[in-house]
């Protein structure tokens, strides 16, 4: 009896469920997946393909080394409308040493010295046109997105009692901001969008 119970219950004992959100921007042709890693995003994408079939989506891949472009941003300033947040992670490709900075001034001489010594930007904190902040990585993953209060204030007049109405309004703001951001990112990082 013990073996029967173990064989029935064991498969259920270590089941972990997860929740992944995504949306398709039909206007611009983007599939945006909110996932903690490339592996999770790939799993979501594979399940989506199994469910609806192929639809011609490709990953964003830069024609140039994104780390080189991010290094240039840290040395020479970000594009118009972008700001540094002071959060950086630089990595030495030779021996994998990592230097992390939090709430750091961009004029810090240490950053310049590290870049001269051959370190590459591994994570770069940014603020995008006063709409949200996040961290960009050379593999084109965007992490830790937090929408700014100024942007969210655009929905202050939306009825807070109805959760679905509020969700729709906030979702529209979010997707508009992210759509503009992805379009800019594709241009700035010279991403090849051809399949």
Key features of this structure:
5-stranded antiparallel sheet, 25% strand, single chain, globular, 6 helices, two-stranded antiparallel ribbon, 9 strands, alpha+beta, 195 residues
List the helices and strands and how they pair.
Blueprint (H helix, E strand, L loop, with lengths): L1 H12 L7 E5 L4 E5 L3 H15 L8 E2 L3 H11 L5 E10 L6 E4 L7 H8 L3 E9 L3 E5 L5 E6 L1 H4 L10 H26 L2 E2 L3
How would you describe the overall organization of this protein?
The protein has 195 residues and is an alpha+beta fold. It has a domain at 1-57. The chain is 39% helix and 25% strand. It is built from six helices and nine strands, in the order H-E-E-H-E-H-E-E-H-E-E-E-H-H-E. It has helices spanning 2-13, 38-52, 66-76, 109-116, 149-152, 163-188; strands at residues 21-25, 30-34, 61-62, 82-91, 98-101, 120-128, 132-136, 142-147, 191-192. A five-stranded antiparallel sheet has the order 5-4-6-7-8. A two-stranded antiparallel sheet has the order 1-2. A hairpin with a 4-residue loop joins strand 1 (21-25) and strand 2 (30-34). The protein is globular and about 70 Å long. The mean pLDDT is 82.
Q: What is the terminal-to-terminal distance?
A: 56 Å
Q: Mean pLDDT across all residues, rounded?
A: 82
What integer value in Å does the Rg equal? 21 Å
Structural class: alpha+beta
As a percent range, the share of strand residues is: 15-25%
What coarse outline follows from CA principal-axis ratios? globular
The oligomeric state is single chain
Number of strands: 9
Our count of helices gives: 6
Q: Considering DSSP H and I runs of 4 or more, what fraction of the residues is helical?
A: 25-40%
Q: Could you state the order of secondary-structure elements as H and E? A: HEEHEHEEHEEEHHE
Strand order of the largest sheet: 5-4-6-7-8
Low-confidence stretches: none
How many strands, which pairing sense, and closed or not: the largest β-sheet? 5 strands, antiparallel
